[in-house]
Design a protein that fits this description.
homodimer, 333 residues, alpha/beta, Rossmann fold, 3 domains, 6-stranded mixed β-sheet, 12 strands, elongated, DNA-binding
Amino acid sequence: MRSATGNKRKPTIYDVAERVGMNASTVSRALNKPGRINAATEARIRAVAEELGFRTNPSARALHTGKTGTYALVVADITNPVHFELIRGAEEVARSAGYALILSETQGSPEREHEAISALQRSADGLLVIGSRLNGSQLAELAEATPIVAANHLADELPSVAPDPTSGYTAAVEHLAELGHRSLAYLSGPLAALNQSRWDLLFRLAVARGISVVEIPLTGATVAAGAEAVPRILASGSTSVLAYNDLVAHGVLREARAQGVIVPDRFSLVGFDDIFSAELAVPSLTTVRTPLHEIGTTAMTLLIDDERNRTPSRELLPTELIVRESTAPPPVG
Amino acid sequence: MRSATGNKRKPTIYDVAERVGMNASTVSRALNKPGRINAATEARIRAVAEELGFRTNPSARALHTGKTGTYALVVADITNPVHFELIRGAEEVARSAGYALILSETQGSPEREHEAISALQRSADGLLVIGSRLNGSQLAELAEATPIVAANHLADELPSVAPDPTSGYTAAVEHLAELGHRSLAYLSGPLAALNQSRWDLLFRLAVARGISVVEIPLTGATVAAGAEAVPRILASGSTSVLAYNDLVAHGVLREARAQGVIVPDRFSLVGFDDIFSAELAVPSLTTVRTPLHEIGTTAMTLLIDDERNRTPSRELLPTELIVRESTAPPPVG
DNA sequence: CTGTTAGCGCTTTCAT
DNA sequence: ATGAAAGCGCTAACAG
């Protein structure tokens, strides 16, 4: 009987070699380059390896090859629902390609993000940063050591994958115009660059249809920030609102209800992302769906591809409008 | 100008040693056992290491020490909101203790879970399994190779951390009794063992207060399964319902609304877990809150503690009732 | 097709 | 206080 802390010793390649009466290098070949050695020997080696419960020690392999067989995910906020499907997509691709995935959360702090990335560069063959708070040049500098791909964030200096709001926004403005809306308020998030391009796009779309449009800045991209914006929405007199994301939209919905303001009777509301609770909300949320899962798989695929993970490029994935209950014709008055 | 794939070479301990004119072993000591060598030399070594951007190669260290400096999280479903805070808690503890965290999702498949665990045992110093689908003896056998702690799941054979429904359920039944309810339906989840103990508890509590109680089995612990249960709830005639978890409760809410059934007028509803959307629901959900974040931190702390991660033990963390809008006095008829 | 050998970067005795 | 040297488990030349 071993002590409570007794580890079962993990078999090495030598244990297998000894057992089959062969050299360790043969075992290594048998396991790594199927078909390059005598079929019978290979089978025997595999059988013994299996029997002994042998698994390659990743550290030993990494030490020699320089490849850890691991990729890392650096994400600002794990609990942001926007990231779930994205993370899951990335994880699926990594796992099915035989890689492990390291997860690191930075709580939105750029310093922690920088530290996390440089620490992880020794443990991973590449990094996927989600919604990075670092600027392009900082990421590019870090990427000199280990490939970095940005997801849900656009950086000119490295490969990035993000949703393209164009199709979804176009459909949303069209939808609102058809319902009869002539005014629109945009609830903008805290990320300057991203917001600018979204605002520009929305501005053009609205102006093209003769819809008046105003921007209402938010203190954050959260439920609380959305709730805070309600008085400003009401004061703006806009009959339709497009929120930076669904979290913000949830806040608007909740606060409006608390104030006895009925959505979509008083104003229509369109969210962004289509997180899982968008459908559960009351009224359920009309929203621009971003292909989160696909962003995750695309980004991880890009990262794993050695040929492409060093060349700046951007994959823009189309968005679409999901019409639910939070949009309706504007009030008649 | 290097080629597009040109990696910046990562400095080793030898580069540092050469630069300070000393032996690699001295550098190793300077960096790992502060105070054990000449203070001035140590300072110089640290300065040079910093300057060169030196970081210990985790694989090389692991190869020698047998410690990877990494823990792994094996979770059935990343997108289940119940797991977010738990994962975040675990990640925080791991990171602040200087460990990396590997994330692996098994999509609820026991085979994949078994495979994931045994694969990860070579890469990690220990594993945290969340909501495992394996039974205690399988986990115990795997735990012979590498410590395993179970979170949100009780296993007699290894250390586990889970919510204790007692306090929350007691408060819930009391709350319903005070509102005047005399009948209760329990929507049970798919995990046999867990359900049994919850049902037993609820049964005792209800009977003690003379409340009639029935169990309605669910096909899964999902929104869809909750929606499916609505006809049975109605048919049961129960005036109050306790759902296996908040996802199920959300499904009930949605389907009830679709059928024109008003909660809490027709029946009261109590959820379990208090996921973030519970507050956003309409009506907002009265629910038994489980300390998810704390389960994560407690479990990871246990795992990191070599003294305790081998000894079966169970940490039961208290739950509490959060009263919101989905509970009210029963209909008078 | 298979064995020998060197070495990846680090830690750790054992010397000095 | 510091240096020398061995070895963790694996892979990849290089031989045979």
